[in-house]
Amino acid sequence: MSAPYPPQERPVSTVVETDVLIVGSGPAGASAALALSTYGVPNIVVTRYASLADTPRAHITNQRTMEVLRDLGVEQEVVAQATPQHLMGNTTFCTSLAGEELGRVRSWGNDPLVQAEHELASPTRMCDMPQHLMEPVLVNAAVARGTQLRFKNEYLSHTQDADGVTATVRDRLRGDTYEIRAKYLIGADGGRSKVAADAGLPMGGQMGVAGSINIVFEADLAKYTAHRPATLYWVLAPGATVGGIGAGLVRCVRPWTEWLIVWGYDVTAGAPDLTTEYAESVVRQLVGDDDIPVTVKSSSAWTVNEMYAESYANGRVFCAGDAVHRHPPSNGLGSNTSIQDAYNLAWKLGLVLDGTAHPRLLDSYTAERAPIGRQIVTRANRSIRETAPIFEALDGLSPQTPEQLWANIAARKDTTEAAGKRRAELREAIAFKAYEFNAHGVDLNQRYTSGAIVPDGTPDPGFARDPELHHQPSSRPGARLPHAWITSGSCTLSTLDTVGRGRFTLLTGIGGEDWLRAAGAQEVEVATVVIGPGQEYEDPYGDWACLSEISDAGALLVRPDGFVAFRHAYAAPDAGELLTDALRTILGHA
Asked: Which of 543, 548, 513 shows the shortest CA–CA distance to 528?
């Protein structure tokens, strides 16, 4: 029997073929695989790691992402494992968990007025779903629907030609390399994406603007947290403004026994030695109770980044998630934007691969998602800077001893005019953090402008209120379809439940017969929804009539991702021509 090849000399194996190769199994890669497999598109996921995420990392899951997961059929699996919204919202500022409380912000939709806006905006509820729980839900569903998943398979490089992409992959278990031939490649390989680098995607901003440490630990902290349930507890302590995200952070992973601390370090000096003793000292400082048993599970250093890709694609190579937007966890936007990137791209790839759409449809991916990526990178980094006024209200940014900081904190209780001013400044500074913890508009006010959207000629009305804090529904082309509760027989459902599932949907009402005939005559599948008295769907509360912004006989054409692509406010004798032209434009055939 001949001797085996040394790993570096093993021959390249037979080329593996698929429609889409996905590099990375995080939120972007896993959701891309899930969507593609749901649409019947063959795909392979490779990850250099031996398992899915083993630490909590990303966790806030907003309403738009829950809508995506609802359409992909995994919403209830996420809800079953996630921390529910009502346990997320007493964001607390304190000197330690056991120490003095400085104030709270009703967060993540738990302010009564904001909660009403959440309920009006979507059929879903936001939740806290740690990444090490989210990834298995996405990946298991993807594999069950056809995705081929390859652990310990490391992407090395790619070349592309007019017909596809050839990626070289190393099997880290066997030690050999082989090729995967795909029609398209998705790089979802994180904040140091090799796929994005190899594709030469232009980037703006910078990496490594500050340093942070994650410490995952177990401790029963119910006596300090259960009475003020929250996802985040912010600790203002000496050294908290060094690097990191602006303050010490104790994050609840599982109520009230599993936690993650974020603590800063001076990135110019390098990360500290992450010994168990060092990690425990940070935990003790932020918890403020030396007697509670603590078990440190892991610790790791990372950098705060402020970088975004100006283009998400090069030829047949597309990138998504942290590969194209790199930012701190402020606002909880990371995995949400990653999942939404993948959802935007997947239906377009599916229609191009089956011949329904022209490849130029794929140009709309960068046009639609790159502005969103840049917005969330800017917003997340701005949120870090908006922590400074809290320290400023306590004179906590000036060089001083810990004793002086504690004295400043105590002085706010005095009866002097200066103390009263300090209290007012502190309340105002904490309340301003609503831009991080209640930015409902950032979550839901996405507006697309691209070749896959057909303008209807109406002027953009803008936003009546702060577009970062407040969601404003709209049926204008480029906006997400407004949510309204409607009925079908004894069933109550959202208008969002009538669209999606990888297909276009036309919504109309009584008098929209011309639109229905036009939808049935298209070469591409267009589902139809008729809302009105005596129709398949009824509008008992009258909400849809107010939100649709069209007459009963008008029409909205909604894309597979739930965004309005075409709108006509009234009946149209030439509905067939209008709809055909709209679809040709959207699909890149015009």
From this structure: 513
Alpha-carbon distance of 167 to 87, in angstroms, equals: 45
Instruction: Tell me which DSSP letter residue 537 carries.
Output: B
- Residue-wise pLDDT tens digits, 408-438: 899 999 999 999 999 999 999 999 999 999 9
Render the burial of 302-318: b for 16+ CB within 10 Å, e for the rest.
bbbbbbbbebbbbebbb
3-state SS class at 567: strand
**Which has the closest alpha carbon to 67: 25, 127, 111, 116?**
127
Q: How confident is the model at residue 239 (pLDDT cuts 50, 70, 90)?
A: confident
Please determine, for residue 12, whether its predicted confidence score (pLDDT) is greater than 90.
Answer: no
Which one, of 445, 442, 443, 470, lies nearest residue 460 by Cα?
A: 445
Angle at 101 between CA 98 and CA 106, to 5 degrees: 120
Distance CA 248, CA 262 (A): 6
**Within 10 A of 42 (CB to CB), how many other CB atoms are there?**
16
Tell me the pLDDT band of 240, cut-offs 50, 70 and 90.
Answer: confident
Residues 6+ apart with CB under 8 A from 38: 72, 73, 145, 502
Count, residues in the chain: 590
Q: Does residue 319 sit in helix, strand or coil?
A: strand
| Structure token pair of residue 304 | 């705060």
Task: Specify whether the CB–CB gap between 140 and 34 falls below 8 A.
Answer: no
Q: Is 586 exposed, middle or buried (0-12, 13-18, 19+ CB in 10 A)?
A: buried
Give residue 8's identity as a one-letter amino acid code.
Q
Relative orientation angle of helices 363-385 and 334-353, to the nearest 10 degrees: 180
Residues 397 and 343: their CA atoms lie apart, in Å, by: 42
Distances (CA, A) of 444 to 117, 260, 439, 461: 11, 28, 9, 17
CB 235 within 8 A of CB 94: yes
| C-beta of residue 15 within 8 angstroms of C-beta of residue 181 | yes
pLDDT in tens, 177-231: 999 999 999 999 999 999 999 999 999 998 988 899 999 999 999 999 999 999 9
pLDDT at residue 2 is higher than 50:
no
| pTM, 2 dp | 0.96
Taken in order 475, 477, 479, 480, the sign of the CA dihedral is positive
How many Cα neighbours within 13 Å face the side chain of 58? Answer: 25
pLDDT score recorded for residue 396:
75
Report in angstroms the alpha-carbon separations of 404 from 80, 197, 407, 521, 582.
Answer: 47, 48, 5, 76, 66
3-state secondary structure of 137: helix
